[in-house]
């Protein structure tokens, strides 16, 4: 199908259309404020578009269908967890973060822990996001390689160029509108796939017939501990990543920021259920299939050629959009928290911002060249560990316990917790995830500092 002229035309036209929205008209960034925060004029739907445009990637679609093929309903944890993470963001964090009028998470953290904490938090969190860009480039490259029979080198190169083009057009100003368009296309694809899977199977009861209730229709089909771990990982990931919180910072006000998070919480989880339907159908009809090809194979076999071109473009855009949002998060963090003090003369120019963003993506691509055969999830786990251990608890303590936190404990946490993740990764610790080692170190240090502050006051 990848060489069918109609498929190629639909695929390319869809990509070109999204690129036009990223670069054209009102979406085009005209200065730094537009590029990083959209001028702080984003409405609820734009905030939701910016969040979902990055949060909904290949894992929400291709990855969910793959896990459903292997385990059933427990594949829903990723999108369900993403929705609950956005709900947590809307209830507890959206208002204080938007009211802070900052541009980055380390900037917010520095108000409570000082400038040393700001620089360290910026470098570690930027490194975590940077590593995740490598994972997304691998995912994009794999999709293009399968579709068009390209080498992974060529497909990864094309993916890097797409990420640069999608990011540089409007930055955060276009992230909301392009994110909503992307979500529309993803929903169109997944709703069509879910309905077709049900029709082909003969209805929900016939689809479920061959599978025992446990483990196939339990959220804990692959383990209670694993399910809870996935949920906690999603909450930590959303709370700890500049890209998602940058959407909150870009909102026109606190009500808009909260509403945008709630809209995201509402629209993300159903995507996972649609992916589960596809995974179960393919498990029933093609049990020997390579699980990673579950959704692509279903689309190839069941979608009309024109619609298949649009659908595959939507899947590619999902991964590209995630990488694009991460690249914007890295460049914003580095510019505001690290480079501005040394390059103050140039850092306020839009050209500097765009150049920095290009360098970030190019750097991820160079790192990818030396690791073309590496596993996507290995990069993702390291990324999550660095971001979560660095940002999560220092941010939560700053929001909920601002009067009693210890600056010294905060600085130690931001230096030592990610270092624990790195050491655990190098030593290949197996008995516990490096993310939880880092989170545990961070929490104990901050809690110790909080208790010490309370006793010193008495």
Automatic annotation (TrEMBL):
Cellular location(s): Membrane
Keywords carried by this UniProt record: Membrane, Transmembrane, Transmembrane helix, Transport
One Pfam family matching this protein: SSF
Transmembrane segments: 6-24, 45-69, 75-98, 119-146, 152-172, 184-208, 228-249, 261-283, 303-330, 351-373, 379-401, 408-427, 433-451
Domain of life of the native organism: Bacteria
Record bears the keyword Transport: yes
Range of residues in the leader sequence: none
Protein name: Solute:Na+ symporter, SSS family
Protein source organism: Malonomonas rubra DSM 5091
């Amino acid at each position: 199908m990848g060489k069918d002229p109609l498929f190629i035309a639909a695929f390319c036209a869809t990509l070109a259309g999204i690129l036009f929205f990223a670069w054209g008209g009102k979406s085009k960034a005209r200065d730094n404020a537009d590029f990083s925060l959209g001028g702080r004029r984003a409405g609820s739907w734009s905030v939701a578009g910016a969040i979902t445009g990055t949060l909904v990637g290949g894992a929400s679609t291709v990855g969910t269908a793959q896990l459903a093929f292997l385990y059933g309903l427990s594949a829903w944890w990723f999108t369900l967890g993403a929705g609950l993470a956005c709900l947590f963001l809307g209830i507890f964090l959206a208002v204080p973060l938007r009211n802070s009028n900052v541009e980055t998470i380390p900037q917010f953290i520095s108000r409570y822990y000082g400038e040393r904490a700001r620089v360290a938090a910026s470098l570690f969190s930027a490194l975590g996001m940077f590593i995740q860009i490598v994972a997304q480039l691998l995912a994009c490259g794999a999709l293009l390689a399968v579709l068009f029979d390209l080498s992974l080198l060529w497909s990864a190169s094309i993916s890097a160029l797409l990420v640069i083009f999608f990011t540089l057009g409007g930055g955060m100003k276009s992230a909301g509108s392009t994110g909503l368009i992307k979500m529309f296309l993803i929903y169109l694809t997944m709703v069509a796939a879910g309905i077709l899977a049900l029709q082909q199977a003969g209805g929900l009861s016939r689809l479920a017939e061959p599978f025992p209730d446990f483990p196939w229709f339990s959220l804990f089909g692959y383990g209670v501990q694993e399910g809870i771990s996935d949920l906690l990982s999603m909450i930590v990931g959303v709370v700890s990543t500049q890209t998602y919180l940058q959407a909150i910072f870009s909102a026109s006000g606190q009500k808009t920021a909260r509403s945008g998070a709630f809209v995201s919480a509402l629209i993300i989880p159903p995507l996972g259920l649609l992916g589960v339907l596809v995974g179960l159908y393919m498990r029933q009809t093609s049990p020997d299939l390579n699980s990673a090809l579950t959704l692509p194979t279903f689309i190839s076999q069941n979608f009309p050629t024109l619609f298949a071109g649009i659908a595959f473009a939507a899947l590619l855009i999902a991964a590209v959009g995630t990488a694009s949002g991460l690249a914007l998060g890295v460049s914003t963090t580095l510019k505001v928290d690290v480079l501005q003090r040394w390059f103050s003369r140039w850092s306020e120019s839009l050209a500097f911002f765009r150049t920095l963003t290009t360098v970030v993506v190019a750097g991820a691509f160079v790192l990818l060249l030396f690791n073309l055969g590496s596993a996507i999830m290995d990069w993702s786990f390291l990324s999550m560990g660095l971001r979560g251990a660095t940002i999560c608890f220092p941010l939560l303590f700053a929001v909920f316990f601002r009067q009693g936190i210890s600056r010294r404990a905060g600085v130690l946490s931001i230096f030592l917790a990610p270092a624990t993740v790195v050491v655990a990764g190098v030593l290949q610790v197996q008995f516990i995830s490096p993310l939880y080692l880092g989170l545990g170190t961070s929490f104990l240090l901050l809690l110790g500092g909080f208790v010490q502050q309370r006793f010193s006051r008495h």
